[in-house]
Amino acid sequence: MSASAPSPWVAGLERDKDLLGRGSTAERVAGVLRRRVTEGDIPPGTRLSEEAVGTALGVSRNTLREAFRLLTHERLLEHELNRGVFVRTLNGEDVAELYRLRRLVEGAAVREVAGAPDRTIEEIRAAVEEGEQAAAEQRWPDVATADLHFHHGIVRLSGSPRLADFMLRVHAELRLAFHAMGDPWRFHAPYLTRNRELLTALEARDAQQSELLLSVYLADAERQLLRAFADREPLPSPD
To answer: What angle, 0 to 180 degrees and rounded to 10, lies between the N-to-C axes of helices 184-203 and 207-232?
Structure first.
């Protein structure tokens, strides 16, 4: 690739330009970038060039800087003095905090399954099928995206649009953690079966079984991710 050729994720942003519409706001720009992070297109450590991103999306520098500021507040980006804006690289403490939050929110959401509308259960089922289809085609980054769609559906069981919107930001940050897994097949494949098992409990409106399955599910996923981060972090230097 030549030095002047755009990165694949930048070319993808050019296709997102139509999503912004006229008079695009920083919130819409942030939404586009957040979605790209959530879908795994922009990995941790990526430098976001103002010129490249602004040109791809057709937005002003001021609008872009405000979008960067919003995403920095969400802990998706970080500004490094004299270097620019980068997608954050998470650590083990970030992972532990994210899973603590997921247990609180998703655990409470599944307890509301008895009164949840059928369309929310259908959205969760669609996410399970999306993941299974992606796995059958060996599209493991898409399996990870489908898994986040599945968990966002679980949050929607709460019936709170504000909570669902908040967890979109949490799931985007979580996707950054997934990049620590060297073998996406080994990490994501077992959860396809577990997603199907959890879906079955949700379709039965069995809140107790759903909460139990989810609790074990999240504990196992957190343990795997923390192990991966521990393997990546350098050992402390001797005194």
So the answer is: 170
